[in-house]
Design a protein that fits this description.
The chain has 1 helix and 11 strands, in the order βββαββββββββ. The chain is mainly beta and 149 residues long. It has one domain: Metal Binding Protein, Guanine Nucleotide Exchange Factor, Chain A, CATH 2.170.150.
Length: 149
């Protein structure tokens, strides 16, 4: 079943202060089960879509986007007004950017393909038996499986 995707893809935060668009469909998507994503999202995992370099841009509310970065890992961007998680980027390679799937306005045209950091999965919510490849640690994005959509 193919989704009808209208470009640009748009999205934003809960309060509407931040709006973004993607000029092309994402490369792929996946779940992250790391402790950081659990704490940031309040859930057992976070689902994000990896964008193609140069396709993401903030069209409104850049002044209310805040970022947080721990000692290692990707920088996490959120709306300072409502707290919505929006995207993450590799501070060493800003072209590597992953948008939180829940922030899209409509179907982004990709489905989760992997689960990473499963060694840290929440014990209170078992990972479903969905057939997705699992990685104990971070998956190198160059190894992201080809989309099966």
């Amino acid at each position: 079943m193919e989704a009808s995707i209208s470009l640009p893809l748009t999205g934003g935060c809960m309060c509407g202060a931040v709006r973004y668009e993607l000029s092309d469909t994402p490369i792929g998507a996946g779940y992250c089960h790391c402790t950081r994503c659990q704490r940031r999202s309040g859930g057992s995992a976070s689902c994000s879509a990896l964008t193609k370099p140069g396709t993401f841009r903030i069209v409104a509310g850049e002044d209310v986007v805040r970022c947080w970065r721990g000692d290692d890992g990707w920088e996490k961007a959120f709306c300072a007004t409502c707290g919505s998680a929006l995207f993450a980027c590799d501070p060493d390679d800003p072209d590597q950017l992953a948008v939180r799937m829940g922030s899209f306005d409509s179907d982004p045209g990709v489905r989760p393909q992997i689960r990473q950091f499963v060694a840290y999965a929440a014990v209170w919510e078992p990972i479903p038996d969905d057939g997705l490849p699992r990685f104990d640690e971070r998956l190198d994005v160059a190894r992201l499986p080809a989309s099966t959509d």
